[in-house]
């Protein structure tokens, strides 16, 4: 049997990974089993996976918690406000994004990105659109009150490993400095940190420091069962990303029966969707929307 873990990585858009199907064809008598916790069966990017290896079993978080295989996730919502200056920038940036979308006649980022390669006036509008989206994203990731809220949460859990997720390197660097100014040592992992350095940072986690800050890097491929606390400062609209982040802290151990997932969000902004996404992903009463551990064969 051939087992493909994290099978969602060989989607239609993953050109190199998807070549694995060409290899599997050479072994028609081999049984194939795919595993994933983060696939959207309605997403066209996974058509090849769904048709080639249709799902044979779906295992919900609720079932895994009941069976004692996962720690029970508890979401703690932490709403905060922008400062007056941040609120002004957010409103101005959002207004520009809406104006540029109307000028281009489209609102979907993928369709807007097409204008970048066509040149001319619309390409300039599309460039401005993405610049403002990035500016708003950074603002939501590094808002002052989010940083202070994260520090207060860390203080509530001294001497306990904590995973802190954000969307930009700048925001975790900012938080790292604020933690340091409060006498709290932390480390960060992102794609500009070498593999060897990452291993060293992880080896010291829970020994010489406790808050570990990450931008995407910790979401796949790291199994850290002792961690039971996650702080989500910001998140993309990608449900797979939410599931991976939650998955880092719900690994069951003899000393861990539940996990705390703090979601820090700015009131009355796009951040509200992050809280809804996290809750729907792990809502133990919602069997349709919660995270599924899916098997394909």
What does this structure look like?
The chain has three domains: about 1-55, no CATH class; about 65-80 and about 145-290, P-loop containing nucleotide triphosphate hydrolases (Rossmann fold, 3-Layer(aba) Sandwich), CATH 3.40.50.300; about 85-140. The longest helix has 23 residues, at about 120-140. Helices cover about 40% and strands about 20% of the residues. The chain is globular, with a radius of gyration of 21 Å. The strands form two sheets. The protein has a six-stranded parallel beta sheet with strand order 4-9-8-5-7-6, sandwiched between helices. It has helices at about 20-25, 45-50, 60-65, 85-105, 110-115, 120-140, 145-155, 170-180, 195-205, 240-245, 270-280; strands at about 1-5, 30-35, 55-60, 70-80, 160-165, 185-190, 210-215, 230, 260-265, 290-295. It has eleven helices and ten strands. By secondary structure, the chain is α/β, with parallel strands linked by helices. Mean pLDDT is about 85; it is low at about 285-295.
């Amino acid at each position: 049997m051939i087992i493909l873990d994290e099978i969602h990585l060989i989607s239609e858009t993953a050109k190199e990974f998807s070549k694995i199907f060409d290899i599997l064809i050479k072994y028609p008598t081999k049984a194939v089993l795919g595993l994933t916790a983060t696939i959207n069966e309605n997403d066209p990017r996974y058509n090849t996976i769904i048709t080639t290896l249709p799902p044979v079993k779906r295992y919900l978080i609720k079932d895994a918690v009941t069976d004692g295989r996962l720690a029970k996730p508890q979401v703690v919502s932490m709403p905060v406000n922008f400062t007056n200056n941040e609120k002004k920038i957010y409103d101005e940036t959002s207004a520009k994004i809406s104006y540029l979308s109307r000028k281009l006649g489209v609102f979907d980022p993928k369709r807007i990105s097409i204008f970048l390669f066509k040149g001319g006036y619309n390409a300039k509008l599309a460039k401005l659109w993405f610049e403002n989206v990035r500016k708003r994203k950074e603002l939501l990731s590094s808002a002052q009150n989010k940083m202070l809220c994260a520090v207060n949460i860390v203080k509530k859990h001294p001497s306990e490993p904590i995973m802190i997720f954000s969307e930009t390197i700048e925001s975790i660097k900012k938080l790292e400095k604020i933690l340091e100014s409060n006498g709290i040592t932390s480390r960060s992992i992102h794609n500009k940190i070498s593999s060897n350095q990452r291993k060293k940072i992880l080896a010291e986690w829970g020994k010489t420091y406790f808050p570990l800050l990450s931008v995407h890097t910790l979401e796949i491929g790291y199994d850290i069962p002792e961690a039971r606390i996650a702080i989500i400062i910001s998140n993309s609209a990608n449900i797979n990303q939410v599931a991976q982040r939650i998955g880092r802290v719900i690994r069951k151990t003899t000393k861990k029966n539940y996990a705390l997932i703090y979601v820090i969000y700015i009131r009355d902004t796009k951040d509200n969707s992050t809280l809804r996404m996290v809750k729907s992903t792990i809502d133990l009463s919602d069997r349709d929307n919660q995270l599924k551990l899916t098997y394909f064969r």
